[in-house]
């Protein structure tokens, strides 16, 4: 398979037209006609990920977060993005990124997140996905913590019955429109990076905050599902940007 064919395949299920206005998706670096030797999926394009590609003999780094978010003014090995780009180019490693278009796809991150929790009647809507799930707020929080290997923060009464939920993976908790949508349509809003004042503004809506990274590390599983029939060797590289240290009283 050639690089452009991989990119087109992902666009066929997560169209470019659905990406956010601020976003950048597709081939960031690489020859569209290059034959693919292997694909390493990861959340972010980092030097460690490029080095892992070199170690594996793979020539494609497939990321969720784009290497270049905005217009590139310069590429120099003295800054993080420039160093990654320089090393990738030097070693013939293509970088392909699919972000918000993959978030909102019916086979993308929001829908996959909901189904991983056992959600029913999952519907991609707005920037997230609405799903049905019969549980309590506390049980749902515990389920998320277990399925995504992370701690979560909860606003609301833990014994509250949850019948309908809304999830936006990543930084959906900074979007007031998303919060208002959730308040009018569901029992709980699940997302990352919830603004402090939103926790007070939510009124009757319950909130579950999962870290940005923990909510989107599933990108490897999503990419692998999309590429499952291509015959390509696809592996995931998990690289948390931090470690969690639990407070001890």
Task: Walk me through what this model shows.
- With 249 residues, this protein is an alpha/beta fold.
- The protein folds into two domains: 3-101, Udp-n-acetylmuramoylalanyl-d-glutamate--2,6- Diaminopimelate Ligase, Chain: A, domain 1, CATH 3.40.1390.30; 106-215, NIF3 (NGG1p interacting factor 3)-like (Udp-n-acetylmuramoylalanyl-d-glutamate--2,6- Diaminopimelate Ligase, Chain: A, domain 1).
- Helices cover 34% and strands 22% of the residues.
- It contains ten helices and eleven strands.
- It has helices at residues 3-13, 47-56, 80-90, 100-104, 109-116, 137-147, 176-185, 196-201, 212-216, 219-226, and strands spanning 26-29, 39-42, 60-63, 94-97, 120-125, 128-136, 152-155, 161-168, 188-191, 206-210, 234-236.
- It has a six-stranded mixed sheet with strand order 5-6-8-9-10-7, with helices on both faces. The chain has a five-stranded mixed sheet with strand order 1-4-3-2-11, with helices on both faces.
- Helix 2 links the parallel strand 2 (39-42) and strand 3.
- The model has no long low-confidence stretch (mean pLDDT 94).
* Cα-atom radius of gyration: 19 Å
Query: Which consecutive residue ranges, at least 5 long each, have pLDDT under 50?
Result: none
CATH topology of the largest domain: Udp-n-acetylmuramoylalanyl-d-glutamate--2,6- Diaminopimelate Ligase, Chain: A, domain 1
Largest sheet: 6 strands, mixed
Q: What spatial form do the alpha-carbon principal axes imply?
A: globular
When the domains are counted, the total is: 2
Strand order in the sheet with the most strands: 5-6-8-9-10-7
Q: In percent, how helical is the residue content?
A: 25-40%
Mean pLDDT equals: 94
Look at the structure and give the CATH class of the largest domain.
Alpha Beta
